[in-house]
Amino acid sequence: MKTRDITQIAVMVAVIIVLGYIPPIPIGLIPVPLVLQNMGIILASLLLGRKNGSYAVGLFVALAFVGFPVLSGGHGGAAVFVGPTAGYIYAWLVTPFLLGTLLRNHQHLAWEISATIVIGVLFINLSGALWLSVTTHLALSKALLAGLIFLPGDLLKSGVAIALHRRLRLLDQFTAVEK
Question: What is the mean pLDDT of residues 73-78?
């Protein structure tokens, strides 16, 4: 691993942490708030590819697990990983690998990136809803329906991540999505 890779991973971890300092917005219907950190996860996936993106998200999740208050709302610690929001966090771990794999052999046209990001957003929300259903004993259909609340915001955040990705790629500040 090169110094540039380590630096980019550290910068993405910092970006995800900073996004966590923006207060979560409680929804009320379910014990899962709206957060901006999933935009950082998508951005790490796009900018760093499946390998380094996975390292960045894995490091971020490890910091949260050992107790650093890096999750939205200043949360952290092992208890978060058994709570109602844990499914989203577990999905974050897989997202860079999933998106990087899907984008690996493509030309990275706008529609390819957008379609892949939609798959990533759906994966995160589906995983979160499944875990929410298990931990809160909410019917899966109700958890999935409640998860629809997140889709417009997640797609908007993903659009911002795509725009940032395109701009940073033009500046040649980040390596290509998995070669």
Answer: 94
- Alpha-carbon distance of 27 to 32, in angstroms, equals 7
CA distance readout (Å), 178 to 51, 57, 99, 101: 8, 16, 10, 8
User: Does 38 map to a domain?
Assistant: yes
- On whether residue 163 sits in a domain, the answer given is yes
Distance CA 44, CA 148 (A): 24
pLDDT at 27: 85
Q: What is the CATH number of the domain that holds 127?
A: 1.10.1760.20
Q: Is residue 41 part of a domain?
A: yes
Q: How many domains are there within the chain?
A: 1
Residue 103 belongs to some domain of the structure:
yes
What range does the domain containing 70 cover? Answer: 3-170
135-152 in b/e burial notation, b at 16+ Cβ within 10 A?
bbebeeeebbebbebbee
- For residue range 119-168, list pLDDT tens digits in order: 999 999 999 999 999 999 999 999 999 989 999 999 999 999 999 988 88
Distances in Å between the Cα of 107 and the Cα atoms of 23, 100, 101, 102, 166 are 37, 13, 13, 11, 13
Closest Cα to residue 103, out of 92, 118, 116, 120? 116
In the chain, what is the straight-line distance between the N-terminal and C-terminal CA atoms, in Å?
15
